[in-house]
């Protein structure tokens, strides 16, 4: 299975974006959830 270099490059760019964006999004969502709980009065979340 030999792919064209153009298609291979496209998959490589998509893969790199996914590897960078998914952990960043998870950390951001977790931080927002923690801040929301803290505003409601729950001080220690996840400890």
Provide a concise account of the structure shown.
This protein has 47 residues and is an all-alpha fold. 74% of the residues lie in helices and 0% in strands.
Q: What's the end-to-end separation, in Å? A: 49 Å
Low-confidence stretches: none
Q: What's the pLDDT, averaged over the residues?
A: 87
Radius of gyration: 19 Å
Large-scale geometry: rod-shaped
**What share of the residues lie within helices?**
over 70%
Share of residues in strands: under 5%
Extended strand count:
0
Q: Biggest sheet, open or closed, and with what strands and sense?
A: none
Query: What structural class do you assign from the helix and strand content?
Result: mainly alpha
Compute the number of helices: 1
The topology string of helices and strands comes to: H
Describe this structure in words.
The chain starts with a helix and ends in an 8-residue tail after the last helix. It has one helix at residues 5-39. The mean pLDDT is 87. The chain contains one helix and no strands. It is rod-shaped, with a radius of gyration of 19 Å.
């Amino acid at each position: 299975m030999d792919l064209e270099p153009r298609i291979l490059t496209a998959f490589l760019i998509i893969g790199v974006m996914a590897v960078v964006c998914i952990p960043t999004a998870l950390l951001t969502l977790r931080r927002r959830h923690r801040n929301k709980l803290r505003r409601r009065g729950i001080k220690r979340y996840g400890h």
